[in-house]
Amino acid sequence: MASVTYDHVVKRYTSDVTVVKDFNVEIADKEFMVLVGPSGCGKSTALRMLAGLETISEGKIRIGDRVVNDIAAKDRDIAMVFQSYALYPHMSVYDNMAFPLQMKRMPKAEIDKRVNNASRILGLDNFLKRKPRALSGGQRQRVALGRAIVRDPQVFLLDEPLSNLDAKLRGQTRIELQKLHHDLETTFIYVTHDQVEAMTMGDRIAIMNAGILQQVGTPDDIYDHPANLFVAGFIGTPTMNFVPVTMSDGSAKASGFDVKLPQHVPSEKGTLGFRPEAVTDRPSEFATLEMNVEVVERLGSDQFLYGSVGGDQVTARVDPRMKVAPGDQVRLGLDSRGLHLFDAQSESAFF
Amino acid sequence: MTVASERLQTIEAARYSPRWIADRLQGAVLHVVIIGLTLAWIVPTLGLFVSSFRPFSLISSTGWWTALSPPFNFTLDNYVKVLSSNNLGTALVNSFMISIPSTVIPVTIAAFAAYAFSWMRFWGRDWFFLALVGLLVVPLQVTFIPLLTMFNKAGISGTFLAVWLAHTGYGLPFAIYLLSNFFRALPTDLFESAEMDGAGTLTVFFRIVLPLSVPAIASLVIFQFLWIWNDLLVALIFVGGSEPVAPLTVKIAGLVNSLGQGYHLLTAAAFISMIVPLIVFFSLQRFFVRGILAGSVKG
């Protein structure tokens, strides 16, 4: 049974290049944890330190109760799926999956059993004799997964495993990975830059930016209660609307509208955030938005309006049956439950 | 309709544009040059080949090309004579005795060294490599006297061992340089994946690096083998004329002196020495397969 703990972990390349700063996360046994963030945020480095491919500059990483800082990668009882798959091109699918077991000097019969079992789970039965170059992208990806599964590791590490697949296959594989996680009952740690993958797959999500952990929580938690401006802007498409406001008498004043705040805030300047779906079709008791519509996007199930309210750009998601054309002026409102307010200085959320 | 015909016209116009003509001309020039070079290399070889099967009287009276039209008059006499009377058989065996170990030893050492230079971290790695690259430009002639003095002191001068050691030394810098460039281009992910799978350094080398490097190693083997097989200078210096050790090149150079008059025998001897490199080249050629890495990484 393996939980994973990052305890004040730091990764420093030179004295002034620090890519992971004071990273603290506890990942429970059997949890599906997603590390997400823009490229260069240190998420892959965090994973590679756990894998044993990078040294740890400061702090401790524990798998279960065991500190693994000085344990070789192969003895950490973890398996990793690489973004590039990293299949051995001169070996057959069978040999690719058998390789880690051969390294453990496992008896042939046991290797055979495990490889066949993994290939059955992944639907690779008919391809065992093929070389990787004779497989499609999705099949290669499954071989890479198979090579991890046969080892029966305590922790699975996946480094952007879907980014080389086309969009349709990515959707399918996302679901297959979740099933796999359910069947294997093992801890998964999954690195991605794609917030959709993070939201759909993770039991919990850890969001990183510039080497600093921003927030850890369930997808709902992070979506509904972002801890700061970065998280609020990173998660969700279309992105959250941000409007600079000044506060007085329990209400916030933007360039084009006022809004009553649900709670008192000890600050005068801030950024008001609300998601496109927090905009209501008609004026609410909290706010009235006079919007000059510039672009209308109809997606069938949704309708997005892009335009300006006062001097601020706002995106609104409205009922698709509402008839709006570019150039129109519409009166919209705000749902108070979807309001967020961030401090102008620290960018952290008041609510 | 009008749109379609207009488009057709523009294509027609582009066809004889200066650019199109320049492209064709470039292609033609390239072909002429390639064919010319090929002929320049093949014609003397062919002449040698044909001559080696002609009797002495004809060789000295007519050109080799006359043999290509009837009456045909070919003979194996030259080969029989040169092999039986001049100890060419021993020389042939000696050539193999020198070439094979002098290829295998440096290529083996170079493969290990190149792996270390490209994928292991050790103190002073880059400086060592730089020094090695520097050795590439040292002319081997400057090493003859000190090396020969050393071999004489050690009492191995004039033996196969001396030639093996010399060729190993001369071959290593280039061999290591070539192989480490190839090894370095292998995807990092493969090594990391192998490390996580629990493969040690030697396992990675034998089970992953070597199988993936067959094309590079094959081309290196061809280079090294041909260079040693055709080498006269190094063999002459370290073996001398010592009959039981002398390779074909030394032997044939000797024949030029002693058989100056009977060069019909030389044609046969020269062709015997040529046939081996040809066999080596054609048998290893199929390993020059591109795209052996296809399918390892990326989708």
Give the topology.
The complex is a heterodimer of chains A (351) and B (299).
Chain A: E1 4-14, E2 17-27, E3 32-36, H1 43-51, E4 58-63, E5 66-67, E6 78-81, H2 93-103, H3 108-122, H4 137-149, E7 155-159, H5 167-184, E8 187-192, H6 195-201, E9 204-209, E10 212-217, H7 219-224, H8 229-234, E11 241-248, E12 251-253, E13 258-260, E14 269-274, E15 279-280, E16 288-298, E17 303-309, E18 312-318, E19 329-334, E20 339-343
Chain B: H1 2-15, H2 18-51, H3 56-61, H4 77-85, H5 88-119, H6 125-135, H7 144-154, H8 160-184, H9 188-196, H10 201-212, H11 214-229, H12 233-239, H13 248-258, H14 263-284
How would you describe what is shown here?
The complex is a heterodimer of chains A (351) and B (299). Chain A is an alpha+beta fold and 351 residues long. Chain A contains eight helices and 20 strands. In chain A, helix 2 packs across helix 3 and helix 2 (93-103) runs parallel beside helix 4 (137-149). With 299 residues, chain B is mainly α. Chain B has two domains: 3-77, no CATH class; 81-296, Orthogonal Bundle (MetI-like fold). Chain B is built from 14 helices and no strands. Chain B has helices at 2-15, 18-51, 56-61, 77-85, 88-119, 125-135, 144-154, 160-184, 188-196, 201-212, 214-229, 233-239, 248-258, 263-284. In chain B, helix 8 packs antiparallel against helix 12 and helix 11 packs antiparallel against helix 14. The longest helix of chain B has 34 residues, at 18-51. Chain B is globular, with a radius of gyration of 27 Å. Residues 1-7 and 289-299 of chain B have low confidence and may be disordered. The interface between A and B is medium-sized, with 35 and 25 residues.
